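SEQUENCE-TO-STRUCTURE ENTRY
===========================
What this section holds: a protein sequence and its matching fold, both as plain text.
Tokens: labelled as protein backbone structure tokens, with as many entries as the chain has residues.
Question of interest: how does this chain fold, as expressed in backbone structure tokens?
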Amino acid sequence: MKHIVKYFVAWRGESNLQFIAKVEVTLKKAVLDPQGVAVENSLKALGYNNTSGVRVGKYIELTLEAGNSKDAALQVEEMSRRLLSNPVIEDFSYTIQEAGR
């Protein structure tokens, strides 16, 4: 019902703001990162012996409309939990800013 109310308010003519969300998804510290190990080994093979602890993740940027930054944050939090990350093995963090700023 919460989403219906939001869309109804927007339909009545109230304008939504655009926000840009930047989401970073990384494996939890306890989860082995074979891709990170491969990158670390490749860096060492290229002579970068001062590297260690390489972890590989995902970066997702999206634009969304919401009435305010709190609503935008709630939507990004839900998207990240439900689709953008696997909560069993991944953590996520995000930043939100109003588009055009």
User: Anything to note?
Assistant: The radius of gyration is 19 Å. The longest strand covers residues 17-27. The chain has three helices and three strands.
